[in-house]
Amino acid sequence: MRLTAEHLDWTVQSKKLLDNVSLTVEPGQNYGLVGPNGSGKTTLLKLLAGLRKPRTGQVLLDGQPISRMRQRDIAQTLALVEQQAETTDRLNVRQAVGLGRTPFLSPLRPWSEQDDIIVARALNDVDMAHMADRLWHTLSGGERQRVHIARALAQQPNILLLDEPTNHLDIHHQLSILQLVRQLPVTVVIALHDLNQAMACDRIGVMDHGHLVADGPPAEVLTTERLQTTFGVQADLIEDPLDGSHIMRFRNAI
Fold it and tell me: What's the domain range around 114?
């Protein structure tokens, strides 16, 4: 499913957080969103998810304005994993992941064995099946993050939006979650703090002070000049002779 943003603006208390942002993410594409803290990544993801209404512009799902869609229909199509999402309810892990099935339930379509199967698969995908009966409030930050991702997977979305999903995760689970996301047959927009992790995306968008200042293949976008002007660091892009992949070697901050 194609995700399109057209000339999005977002302002809070006279401060413009997004300024004329336009992008198109093609079906099945893994799109990385990078930028310094406060550059507008989280705000853009919330607009793309339909959680906020842009001051100007619009978001389209396969050409249909998201503003004209019912929230239930959006939730059956698109899932968002936020950086911080808490609950005061006394839920266990399985129940928290089961919330991802809510958009599909109704009096005519109650919970079924198929929902149990979907939830179990999502828990297994994020390595949390062994904690399915643990209460939410007993989990660490990293474990909660994996439950959030499992809840989104339980929605079986066509579009998956993730806001720095590897925060709080150890390196093993960082790599496994990113590998899982890359293998999903869905359209993905993922905000990342680690630029080397972003190098594995199909395309990258660079946010800076509310503007989308670059958009394209990672090796073409994250140039030495861009790293200096946007991130204030000096780095070299190195090609791995074994597989041709690119990584950054950072030298120092400017």
Answer: 89-156
